[in-house]
Write a structure and sequence with these properties.
Length: 361
């Protein structure tokens, strides 16, 4: 039995994905699902999302500028930042657009299916160590963070910028980062200095950080007030995207068909494994594996770090035929992944369950 024989002829096609979507997918790669086997994603396998161009930056002579509602505008060199107390945190980062390509109709943007997620061990210092030095004024209502990369989105020209509340910016876990998995940060991941905002979707973790500004009014940057909002439709004012939604993924079992990615598995006992995570460091309470729509509880591995995904295992007794596998996580707050895709006008926050088509022989 060869269920993939009919994929030998692949007629040329007009278009499903636009040329622009494919262009974005060539620049911004996801991770290979089999990399879910690693607690910490190897650097080159970590997903990437860069809105504009990777800026031409050098660690030499680099300094971070801090201005706005503080005593005096200051420049802090990379060496000074490296001299501050260092911390290393293993953090799962996921792009808010992950799962967008499963939504119909689809918002034209980076067409992620499942793979815009990864876990790295980030080394740097708590942002609060720098903020404490500069002396925030009490009238500060938000702190804005700017990357060195600029461009246009929907006609708006801007430097990539995001903001956090002063309380969030002063929390222990928000980091200024200069190393990833023990190696100097690579250009595409934000070298020489980036932020990591654990427990939030990736857009908050500003790469190529060059300027911090304490604001006495809410930040009105494009990526803060226009982009990254959950919206029912284009006219909906929407709600800001913040923490990760509970989610899980599995390593597709067996071997794939090159083109369709459908799987072939031998009958018998199949060891399924994957990862599960939720937002703001909320622990995952339960993971279930769906076999043709029937859910079975899988085994969670012990949790390793607050902001890192948790591994899970399940033994599937695979019987010959066509099957659809799925997985869904529930966190300790009782939030469960939807089985189907979750609608959003821009394709954000779709934590619908992953489905894997498997032929068992
Ligand atoms: N300066 C800057 N920072 C940025 C971005 C960007 O385009 N420019 N993309 C954000 C988004 S949407 C995500 S998901 C993460 C991706 O981080 P990574 O490429 O290191 O995986 O970076 C965030 N930080
Ligand atoms: Mo993202």
């Amino acid at each position: 039995m060869n269920p993939f024989a009919d994929t030998s002829s692949r007629p040329h096609r007009e278009a499903d994905f636009s040329r622009e979507e494919v262009g974005l997918a060539n620049r911004n790669h996801g991770f290979a699902l089999e990399a879910l086997r690693y607690d910490v994603t190897p650097i080159g396998m970590h997903y990437l999302l860069t809105h504009f161009d990777i800026p031409d930056m050098s660690a030499e002579g680099f300094s971070l500028e801090i201005g706005g509602a503080i005593e005096n505008t200051v420049s802090i060199s990379l060496d000074e930042i490296k001299a501050l107390p260092s911390i290393t945190q293993t953090v799962t980062l996921e792009c808010a657009g992950n799962g967008r390509a499963h939504i119909t109709p689809r918002h034209p943007s980076m067409p992620w299916s499942n793979e815009a997620v990864g876990t790295a061990s980030w080394t740097g210092t708590s942002l609060k160590n720098v903020l404490q030095q500069v002396g925030l004024k009490p009238e500060t209502v938000e702190i804005a963070f700017f990357g060195a990369d600029a461009g246009f989105d929907k006609g708006h020209e801007h430097f990539y910028g995001r903001s956090l509340s002063p309380e969030h910016a002063m929390s222990d876990e928000v980091m200024l980062v200069y190393a990833m998995n023990g190696a100097p940060l690579l250009p595409q991941h934000g070298a020489p200095l980036r932020m990591i905002v654990p427990g939030w979707y990736g857009m908050a973790s500003v790469k190529w950080l060059i300027r911090v500004e304490a604001l006495t009014a809410k930040f009105d940057g494009y990526q803060q007030v226009d982009g990254y909002h959950y919206r029912e439709n284009a006219d909906d004012p929407g709600a800001p995207v913040r923490e990760l939604r509970v989610k899980s993924l599995m390593i597709p079992p067996g071997i794939p068909d090159w083109y369709t990615r459908r799987r072939m598995v031998d009958a018998g006992s199949v060891a399924l494994q994957g990862r599960a995570w939720s937002g703001n460091g909320v622990e995952v309470a339960k993971i279930e594996v769906g076999v043709d729509g029937t859910w079975h509880e899988a085994t969670l591995r012990p949790r390793q770090e607050t902001y890192a995904w948790t591994g899970w295992d399940f033994t599937w007794m695979a019987e010959p035929g066509e099957h659809v596998l799925a997985c869904r996580a529930t966190d300790v707050n009782g939030q469960t992944q939807p089985v189907d895709t979750r609608w959003d006008n821009s394709g954000l926050g779709n934590n619908g369950a992953q489905h894997v088509h498997v032929t068992v022989r």
